[in-house]
Amino acid sequence: MPRSLREWFKDYRLERRIRKNRLVTKDGHCNIELGNVMHKKGFTYVLDFWTTFVETRWRFILLYFVASYCLSWFLFGLLWYWLARSNGDLLWQNPTPDHTPCVHNVNDMTYAYLYSLETQTTIGCGNIYVTDQCPGGVALIIIQTVIGVLISIFWCGIVMAKLTLPKKRAKTITFSKSAVICPKKGTLCLQIRVANLRKTLMIGSQIYGKLLRTTVTGGETVILDQVSIDFMVDAGKDNLFFVCPLTLYHIIDKSSPFFDMAVDTLHQQDFELVVFLDGMAESTSSSCQVRTSYIPQEIMWGYEFLPIISRSKEGKYRVDFSNFAKVVPVPTAHCSHCYHNEPGNHLHLKGIDNKSFEMFDMESSNDTKT
């Protein structure tokens, strides 16, 4: 096997394993399995049928759409067939020449199904029509017309709701694939980059993070222990002016869970940093949330993002997305303790005092001859 193909397969398996171990994927989907759900609790999905249909995939929506109409046509076709049979209109019943049918030309099940379809879709009945001597047929045609309108209203609402889902707007907001740790304004910071790919703004944008990890306290193991991570820009952390890509940073101080990490121990950690961006779409006024996550292997220590905003000679601002995820190395302390000159990290070792050690000066003798 060629080396390049073997490396590609190894990277592919590593990516698959990392994807399975994530709680939140890079595109914001939650990777969690619900097990041992009781049947009564599962019935709640049926009670909340509107949300269930809105969250159903498009291929199943199309299947349910076609099935609902075909089933309604067939059921009402059976009713029209039963009505014609009760009135003695079918061919095998040998109606007399002076017999007045309930529905003209509904002689078998095929014509009953066609009449049901034409009635519900209001495309015209042609030579198939209800006579005035059949009150049951008049009532049935009214009921079928109303039910057909309700089915159309339901599916129109489902399609419109799915087309206007806020998560569709979230597709146009992207995060950088990696996070970086570098100095910024006199302190060590964890930085990420986020961009709005549309010219319409996100109103009231707020960004925050959650650090998920497994902790052991007092003999108790807490899985998915959550620690809040604050992100901000130079103007603050609330109501971001999201007109251009922003570089958000988290200050690594003593209160930060990243304070005790170092460049050579970061990738040995087991955590997941989930970043959230909440806002309201300017064009639709619908609230949406964008999510992504970073694992230790996706955090680069000692790098910073390249600038992507420039200004042309005509005075227009320009965003170069080719540099959106590019980073460059910068001089960075290998840990927060070293950056703040504080003891406690592995480079601040405690020395051993050797009492038998003496220090003296070596003076060269003037009478030494060579």
How many helices? The count is 9
**Low-confidence regions:** 345-354, 362-370
Radius of gyration: 36 Å
Distance between the termini: 68 Å
- Average pLDDT confidence is 82
Strand fraction band?
15-25%
Write the layout of secondary structure elements.
Blueprint: H1 3-21, H2 39-42, H3 44-47, H4 49-54, H5 58-86, H6 109-121, H7 135-163, H8 166-170, E1 173-175, E2 179-184, E3 187-196, E4 202-217, E5 220-230, E6 238-240, E7 246-251, E8 271-281, E9 287-294, E10 299-301, E11 303-305, E12 309-311, E13 317-319, E14 327-329, H9 336-339
Parallel strand pairs: 2-10
Antiparallel strand pairs: 1-3, 2-3, 3-7, 4-5, 4-6, 4-8, 8-9, 11-14, 12-13
Helix pairs in contact: 5-6, 5-7, 6-7
Structure notes:
This protein has 370 residues and is an alpha+beta fold. The protein is 31% helix and 24% strand. The protein is built from 9 helices and 14 strands. The chain has helices spanning 3-21, 39-42, 44-47, 49-54, 58-86, 109-121, 135-163, 166-170, 336-339, and strands spanning 173-175, 179-184, 187-196, 202-217, 220-230, 238-240, 246-251, 271-281, 287-294, 299-301, 303-305, 309-311, 317-319, 327-329. The strands form 4 sheets. Strands 1, 2, 3, 7 and 10 form a 5-stranded mixed sheet that branches. Strands 4, 5, 6, 8 and 9 form a 5-stranded antiparallel sheet that branches.
